[in-house]
Amino acid sequence: MKFTYLKNVTTLQLNQNKCSGCGMCLEVCPQQVFSMNGNLSAIVDRDACLECGACAKNCPRQAISVRQGVGCAYAVLVDKFNLKGQCCGDTCCSLEDYRKES
User: Fold this and answer.
1) What are the pLDDT digits (tens) for 37-74?
2) How far is CA 77 from the centre of its chain?
3) Quick check: 44 and 34 in contact, CB under 8 A?
4) What is the DSSP letter of 92?
5) Structural domain boundaries of the chain?
6) DSSP string of 39-79?
7) Helix or strand or coil: residue 13?
8) Strand partners, 36
9) pTM of the full predicted structure?
10) How far apart are CA 80 and CA 74, in angstroms?
11) 13-73 — its CATH code?
């Protein structure tokens, strides 16, 4: 099942100048965030990124960066386990702010 979180909050970055086109990111991403664009990887659904870090950890050229546990996937976990904190510090929303918008 594919989930989408808040728009434009993910820290996911892809440097296509470093990409070798191996497709490893496509294989390990649980959310189908990537696809091949010619012979290089491309981000096609940034807002679906869970920020799990599987793509960055498995990229042999270090073309992908993502700050694990800072996006809205973290906010979902915080909410599920009744933990205190903010999903991204000052760059996103507190869980309470997110609930107000929903």
Assistant:
1) 999 999 999 988 888 899 999 999 999 999 876 655 65
2) 14
3) yes
4) S
5) 13-73
6) TEEEES-GGG-----HHHHH-TT--EE--TT-SHHHHHHHH
7) strand
8) 41
9) 0.66
10) 10
11) 3.30.70.20
